[in-house]
Amino acid sequence: MRYSQAFIPTVKEAPKDATMPSHVLMLRAGYARMVGAGIYELLPLGVRVLHKIERIIREEMDAAGAQELLMPTFLPAEYFKESGRWDVYGPTLLRIEDRKGGEYHLAPTHEEIVTDLVRREVRSYRQLPLNLYQIQLKYRDEPRPRAGLLRCREFIMKDAYSFDVSEDAAQQSYADMRDTYHRIFQRLGLEYRVVEADSGAIGGKQSAEFQVLAQTGEDRIVACDRCDYAANVEVAEAGRAETHESGAAEPAALEKVATPDTRSIDEVVAFFGGKAVAADTLKSLLYIAGDQLVLAVVRGDHEINEIKLARHLGVGEVLLATDGAVREATGTEIGFVGPVGFEGRIIADPDAIAVANAIAGASETPYHYRNVNYGRDFEAEVASIRQAASGDRCPACEGRLQLYRGIEGGHIFVLGTHYSEKMSATFLDEEGKSHPFVMGCYGIGVSRLIAAVIEQHHDEQGIRWPLPVAPYEVIVTPIGKEEAPLAKATEIYGALRAHGVEALLDDRNERPGVKFKDADLLGIPIRLTVGSRGLERGTLELKKRTEAASTDIPVDDAVAATMAALRELRG
RNA sequence: CGGGGCGUAGCGCAGUUUGGUAGCGCGCACGGUUCGGGACCGUGAGGUCGGAGGUUCAAAUCCUCUCGCCCCGACCA
């Protein structure tokens, strides 16, 4: 492509609404533009990257025996009504009425539609296993779209659905997809972790997330520094309880201390000066779970995991009690609530009850107790209700857990017969008996991955594409107003293209600085600079986007040297 | 949905407190000088001040309503 004819609208200043690196850079470098909140158009460069990613996904999915199809995104309501999701999905489902008043919606995912297709067309165990996938637009009216392409209301997703004769066979399909996903994420040049996850609303028994590591990610995950244990903090088992030694391990006498203006753990710790740290305190929070009020207690430096708490209580969700509710239930202000003397259900984390001579709220404003000890001063149901934290012991080995932030790039599930049973999707086995298909589903946020790659591969100057997903592999940059550089650059550009290299020729009538800045911004992995100065010596410069220095190479070796550099970048 | 912030030229912003001629930088067009890390000079085009209603002789500015966008929290590829 000749840059002078390319539609690559770069800008110096990013719109103020963009905050994350990937968002800023996609806008500045002319890869994408916003149309509405969570709605983007991909410009030519963006589409080239998209196609690169899609191609890798298709190659690996096809190699795994999956078959591509294309399902509609505009759907009659009947399928979601059949599975029950028409009601369950809530406002996230974009509903549409046609001219006759018929109910429709835009597809947020396609379990029902494939299941319907398969139940109509597949009758026999001999047609199984079957894995069908598509790369398609998806629509979810997200409560809060954000961060550019990372969280959109319209996005591109690869979704695959497997159909098997048995649970065992489905486990095999799941394992195969897991392997396939590893290959895909590796080829994309991403640093990622596979983590245990909450199956969420899709309804499944087993699932794993492919989390792309990035400081800007929305998800928090923990991973062991020794073994391959990794999990979303939502579900991560916290490390085993460790008794926190705070001086005297012998229980001392309970003591009530006036502690005005100490609402937070930090303030309590500050009040007790050098004598206490957050791990010496107990954090007590009042939750509303269904129709009951429960007190959740964790160690002061730990965070409550509401998902775990809800699970322990056997309710869908728990709500933090309001100030008023706390006052009414305990007769005290928030900040002074504690387990001692609390009349009601108390759930305490193992690490909380292990604290000797703890500081905890006295359920009286403004007092705290000192030397609170579990068993003597309060009783509780003991359950792991805290979030895993950095430094926790790994639940699987002797290692320690590290905290990361991640972008959920993929999610694979064993669905079981959830949908096939609801939708009466069955096949006949060898004996002519009818069984529901055992299903799995496997998603990859394709458009999200464009942004995820940028989050991992950029610097102050711009994007630094890994070669496999770069929109162009090489940019040839003639410098100066003389004829020679442009002529030679054009010649090399032609030769590279003849060798199958995806090249961009910056034939614009721009000053060198502009061309260099744009080349860095766009993130093309290799730049060939052709200037009259070098030509006089018979050389040009080859520079990798990831390296600061360039290399002089003989003009006649330009193509060979470039091919070699590309091979090197491919690994 | 709760909390916070922002809507003025394509982009970034000032002007709003204290009503009175709509401004700056970048970008864009034209002319000239430049040409190895976002050049310089000159000329010029470009704005329903998010929208509606109100107050006023007069509204970007004050009042009411409304729409949109961003950020932080509960959901998800």
Describe this structure in words.
The chain is of the alpha+beta class. The chain has 3 domains: 17-195 and 413-454, Bira Bifunctional Protein, Domain 2 (BirA Bifunctional Protein, domain 2); 255-382, YbaK protein (Alpha-Beta Complex), CATH 3.90.960; 472-570, Anticodon-binding domain (Rossmann fold, 3-Layer(aba) Sandwich), CATH 3.40.50. Helix content is 28%, strand content 28%. The chain contains 16 helices and 31 strands. Strands 3, 7, 8, 9, 10, 11, 12, 21 and 24 form a 9-stranded mixed beta sheet that branches. A hairpin with a 5-residue loop joins strand 18 (358-361) and strand 19 (367-372). Helix 2 (44-63) runs antiparallel to helix 6 and helix 2 (44-63) packs across helix 12 (446-456). The two termini are 26 Å apart. Mean pLDDT is 87; it is low at 199-203. The protein binds one RNA strand of 77 nucleotides through residues 11-19, 34, 36-37, 90, 92, 108-109, 138, 140, 142-144, 146, 151-152, 155-159, 200-201, 209, 218-219, 306, 317, 319, 407-411, 443-449, 479-481, 510-518, 520-521, 529, 531, 533.
